[in-house]
Amino acid sequence: MAAMSLGGGYVNPYEVTALQIAGSRAQAIFRSRHRRDLRERLRATDRLLDQVERTRLQDQPRVPAATWAAALRLAGEVDPSLCANLRHERHPDRVGAALFLIQGRLLEQARGSAEAGLAPVIPLFPPG
After folding, report:
1. Could you read off the pLDDT of 66-110 as tens digits, one per residue?
2. Residues contacting 127, CB < 8 A, separation 6+
């Protein structure tokens, strides 16, 4: 018996659904990695703010170079325009204010990614 030709326009709905599910899983993995990066950056700002507060408590006029460099690097990753706030200033108030701006931007990004929501529901069989 000869194989039946289904024509060039035939699409197996099971294959289409499997491909859509695979695409949704890939998007979910990407989103989870992106959220994890946001969480890690937020933790980094918390650690740096803690170090700035310790500097204030010790009445030091400048934030340690390692803390300042980490804040500058984080500002460059989040929003390069924030680097201008830190370029030549290591005063605890200035570094703390910049870190709060960085944290605000990260929270805006987190809110934006949460509003994007989950992957769309894929019907098992397309209508029609």
Report:
1. 999 999 999 888 888 888 878 778 899 999 999 999 999 998 888
2. none
